From TrEMBL:
Protein name as annotated: N-acetylglucosamine repressor
Annotated InterPro entries: ATPase_NBD, ROK, ROK_cs, WH-like_DNA-bd_sf, WH_DNA-bd_sf
Gene this chain is encoded by: nagC
Family: Belongs to the ROK (NagC/XylR) family.
Pfam family name, one: ROK
Amino acid sequence: MRFPFQSSSAPPLVAGRRFQGNGMTQTSIVQPRLLSQLNERLVLDAIQSYGPSTRAEVTERIGVTFATVAKAVASLIDARLLEEYDEPTVGRGRPAKRIRLAVDQSQVVGVAIEIDEVLVAAAGLDGKRRGATSTFKTPSSYQQLVRSISEALSDLIKSERLNVLGVGVSVAAQVDEKAGRVAVAANLPYLSDKPLERDLREAIGITCSIVRDTHAMCVSERLHGSAKNLDNFLLLHLGVGIGMGVMIDGRLFFGQYGYSGELGHMTVVPGGQLCHCGRKGCLETVASEWGLSDHLSEQLGRQVTVEDVARLYASGDPVAKKEVRRTCKHLALGVSHAVHLFNPGKVVVYSRLFSACPELLELLVHNVERIALPLNFRGCEFVNAATTPLDGSIAHIIGHLADALAPRLSHTTIVN
Ligand SMILES: [Zn+2]
């Protein structure tokens, strides 16, 4: 068997070959089972990238033998990650057997825990949602949240006759994804320090993985959103808080402990307004939904929501226009710093306000251009997101299942 990471002239991989990646070199004994898993992962990734394929097409794309592909496909069908189907043919002849990501044989479920509502939906392993989305108001206690999600899942599985391989849960909070624990949830305090992954897994009896909403959306945007197949981009989530997901070289950047992307708590007004985090003058105090609503409420002498802000801005209200422009200027300050740091190909913006007022994206771009370094700004496209945290939770659990199968070694080279 030829190992997929070798050139055709290279000798077969044997125990003791050195792996070199990211400047580090180590000696490793590669076991046959690991080789099989790596091949399975390659086949899975190829079908995810190219869509439904025949075994011969996969063989050609990843450069291993037909027998190796056939063995990997058989194992992936057994694991219910792939399924075989007959491609309808025109005219005579036997229909071609094609392989696709499982859609009919097995599914995943995504759960998005947002500040005011929880959304639950099923999807195929291709990440496309199927059936209805169930929505309920975010419960006011942790026990009720776990119970409500568990009940919604149970109803969905029964009504759609699902065969669920895993459940992805995105949370609007700082999440210790390795430990499966919500670390700090400033806007849903009862979630802080809770082992949500373990508790949900015990309640529903299915593999479960929790993820921060901005991290989840980075994955769905790259899989089938506005940053499809792009290796370097930023996901800016403007909501009650401000969060950022960072994709570097095709990999999500977590940071050492998983808390990367805290753009909202960058100080932009030293000694300014008190933030939810307990510090003063954070970007969130002047550029988030709550910051904007608070400032506009103060100016108008009545409480306004973000929906009111969008309506007032669209109707040309001068006070709303002034506050929104001021918000965009502050936001541009934070975004330009991120553009300087990461040199992204795109900044993908997910925001209810920006969706309701499309011209705000142009206003943000204009303000960033005024303060960003030209070399960093040029070539960086600003676009609205095409997916949601719910899509992100689905994309996350699909990635989690693939990672459980075998690690992705696309950035590792093997040397003699
Ligand atoms: Zn803060």
